[in-house]
Amino acid sequence: MRRSAHTRSTRFRGLRRALVSAAVMAGVVAGTAGWAAGDAQVAVTGPPPGTAAWRADASLGRPLPDPATASPREVAAFFARLDTPERTALARRHPSVVGNLDGAPLALRYQANALAVRRDGRFGQLTGRRVLAFDPRGRGQVAEVFGDLAASDSVAVITPGSDIDAATYDRRSDPYGTPAGMARELRAATGGRTAVIAWAGYTTPVGVGVDAATGRLAEAGAERLVRFTEGLAAVGLPAPAVFCHSYGSVVCGLAAPRLAARDLVVLGSPGMRADSAAELRTGARVWAAKDPDDWIGDVPHVELFGLGHGADPASPGFGARPVPVAGAHGHTGYFAPGTASLRAFAAIADGTADGTADEATEETANAGTEGGLR
Predict the structure, then answer these.
(1) CA atoms of 336 and 240, how far apart (whole Å)
(2) Helical ranges in the chain per DSSP H
(3) Nearest CA to 343 among 321, 322, 358?
(4) What are the start-end ranges of the H helices in 145-195?
(5) Do 196 and 147 touch, CB atoms closer than 8 A?
(6) Which helix (H) or strand (E) holds 263?
C-alpha cells in the first residue's frame, strides 16, 4: 500500500509539473516574457514556380531533371553534360527553376535569379546582388552570397529566426539582427576568407506567437535547408559552418541528422527539439551562445503538447561547446563588431577553431581578425 501511495504521489507531482509548464508556455504564447502575438503563416513548400513549364520543355530532346524528385547530385550531373549555350538557354527560359535548382552551377543560378528578380519587379533591392536562390511566393525567400563561393576555402550559412523574408532579410535599421547583416559582419571578421550565405530560404514565423512556439514552420524549413546544403556539396563546395539564430535553431535542430555541415552554431536559441547535442545525431560540432540579457532566457525550455522547443542548447547539460559572449547585448547583438561572440564565430567559420570557443577567440584576436575588420 505504501509503495502504491508513493507511486501515485510521484505521478501527481509529475502531472503537476507538466501542467505548470503548460501554463507557463501558454503565457509565453499569449505575449508574456517578451513574446508578442503573431500571425499564422502558410509554409512555402514544393518545387519552385515555373516547374510545370520546365517539365514540359523538350528542347534538349530528353527530360529535364524534375525539381521535385531529382537530387542535387543528379542536377549537377545533368548540367555537367550541357554546353554553355544550352545552360544559358535553360536559364533564360526558366529563370525561377534554374535559380532555385540546388546542384545547378553557381554562376548560372546568379544569372537566372537576376532575371527572375527583374521579371518579378517587387524586390528591386535584390538587383545587382549575388542571389543564389529567389522564390517570390508568399512573403518571398532569398539566399544572398557575400564573397566568392567558388574561390573561398570556407563557407558559412546564416539561418534566421522570426520576421525574416525577402523584404526584411537586410534591414539596415537592425544590422546585426538580420541574416544579411550577420553575413556581412561574419565575412568581415574572417578577413574576407570565408564566403557567407544569408539564407532566408524558409517561411519564418511573424511575431512570436503560436507559430514560433511550435515546430510546424521549422519542419518545412528543415527540408529546404537540408536540400540547400546538399546543393552546395553537389557543386564541390566545402561543408559549411551553419549559424542558427533564434527560431532558426529549431530549423537547424530538426535538420541536423541530415544536414551537410561541418559546424552547427546556435545563438539566442529557444531550443532545438532535442534534449542534448548527442540527440541531434549529427557529425557536425555543435556550439551554443546565449547572452545573459537576451530575452530568450525568459522562455521556458520545455516541449509539451506541441508547444516549446525543449532543452536550452546553451545549458551545460546539453553538451554543446560554449561560445563566449562578452560584449554582446540582447537578442540580436551576437554579431556586433568587437564582441567575443563574433570573434569566436569567425574562428569557427574559417575553420581555425580546433579547441574550445574560448581558445578560438584568443587565436582569432591574436591573428588580428577582430570583429568588424574590413
Answers:
(1) 21
(2) 2-30, 51-56, 72-80, 84-93, 95-98, 106-120, 179-189, 210-213, 216-234, 248-255, 340-349, 357-366
(3) 358
(4) 179-189
(5) yes
(6) strand 263-267
Give yes or no for a contact between 176 and 333, defined as CB atoms under 8 angstroms apart: yes
> Are 190 and 364 spatial neighbours (Cβ–Cβ below 8 Å)?
no
pTM over 0.90? The answer is no
Give the three-state DSSP class for 264: strand
Pairing of strands 321-322, 285-289: parallel
Q: What are the residue ranges of helices labelled H in 146-257?
A: 179-189, 210-213, 216-234, 248-255
C-alpha cell, 361 = 577567440
CB atoms within 10 A of CB 39: 10
3-class state of residue 143 by DSSP: strand
pLDDT 10s digits, 214-239: 999 999 999 999 999 999 999 999 99
Q: In 3-state terms, what secondary structure has residue 68?
A: coil
Closest CA to 345 of 149, 327, 165: 327
The helices-and-strands tally (H runs, E runs) of the chain is 12, 8
Q: Give percent of the chain with pLDDT exceeding 70.
A: 84
CA distance 323 to 310: 20
